């Protein structure tokens, strides 16, 4: 198969790495890709939101399968666009329809979907700028801390956890009246704070059947001990000890099945990945959010544990034949450590040459924000630069492999968290 993969981050490099291992893939194109994908596939200079350009490329290169990595083209309706064109209507696409992508594109839409389909989640109310007084009154009835969420896409930064009522009121006004997150906060969801330990559950679905992928725990904040600003993710661990068989059975019965059944019942076309952000609250699962694609950096830890053919999985999603696919998952641990540009998630300098050792025993180095300069050197081009995944028979071995490689990768002002996985080790 000729496959087109859209995206340029660590998630897409992990997808590409897994796709090219399959004998079913004859040619992989990545648009726009990064320095890592360029080593194993053909990078294409094409924007992920250039729908006309994507269509032309599919037709000119006899693409048999399209895989969408990030959420933006999904929320903007790429799947619907390709389905509406005669020439591309029959080409399988891995990614939900625009309506399906609203599960991530609108927090209010997803909360109402959960409510209708009896999916356990935190209590909430949604407010717009013309309901500011009602919203402020509602805040006074809430227990602390109070969670405020921008309704729309805010690059992972639209969630605030307010420790005082004064802070909640001030932030609520900033979001609605001063557009703190732009159009994303034209609606604000006020949510009950959930206690417990977070995890990410990944589901592949063709809209009828589903397969549950390995679960993971990620690390959002920039500083050790989960301090400082939120980021796109500083690391991930899979499997997680607090998601035992009994808990995961509850996740399947109370969350996954009602979600997939709800999509079908409400005629929401959905052939893609569903990332379910969960809270384990005393052994009970509560949904924090849905994302309509794989997570990053969790993908870089999850995919190395899938041992069955990945292209067969993707094709099963796209063609509606997922029920015939048998997923096989390794019992090994995988841990991912993200290396970032100094200053991230604030401002940072780009263009520093990166030295990566040739031998990276027990690890895979996934590129995220990298490019090649005029001299052919790999340089940092984004905030999150590399994701190093270590594998092992134990969590300790996987972490050792990851950090041994991290310590041998260098560029000016590079930073990483040294405590990834340490909280899980204490639970074992």
UniProtKB/TrEMBL annotation:
E.C. number: 6.3.4.13
GO molecular function annotations of the record: ATP binding; metal ion binding; phosphoribosylamine-glycine ligase activity
Annotated pathway: Purine metabolism; IMP biosynthesis via de novo pathway; N(1)-(5-phospho-D-ribosyl)glycinamide from 5-phospho-alpha-D-ribose 1-diphosphate: step 2/2
Pfam families named among the record's database cross-references: GARS_A (PF01071), GARS_C (PF02843), GARS_N (PF02844)
Sorted UniProt keywords: ATP-binding, Ligase, Nucleotide-binding, Purine biosynthesis
Stored Gene3D superfamilies: 3.40.50.20, ATP-grasp fold, A domain, ATP-grasp fold, B domain, Phosphoribosylglycinamide synthetase, C-terminal domain
InterPro entries: ATP-grasp (IPR011761), ATP_grasp_subdomain_1 (IPR013815), PreATP-grasp_dom_sf (IPR016185), PRibGlycinamid_synth_ATP-grasp (IPR020561), PRibGlycinamide_synth (IPR000115), PRibGlycinamide_synth_C-dom (IPR020560), PRibGlycinamide_synth_C_sf (IPR037123), PRibGlycinamide_synth_N (IPR020562)
GO biological process, one term: purine nucleobase biosynthetic process
Top-level taxon: Bacteria
Catalytic reaction annotation: 5-phospho-beta-D-ribosylamine + glycine + ATP = N(1)-(5-phospho-beta-D-ribosyl)glycinamide + ADP + phosphate + H(+)
UniProt domain ATP-grasp: residue ranges: 111-319
Record has ATP-binding as a keyword: yes
Similarity-based family: Belongs to the GARS family.
Name under which the protein is recorded: Phosphoribosylamine--glycine ligase
Species annotation: Algoriphagus machipongonensis
Gene (name only): purD
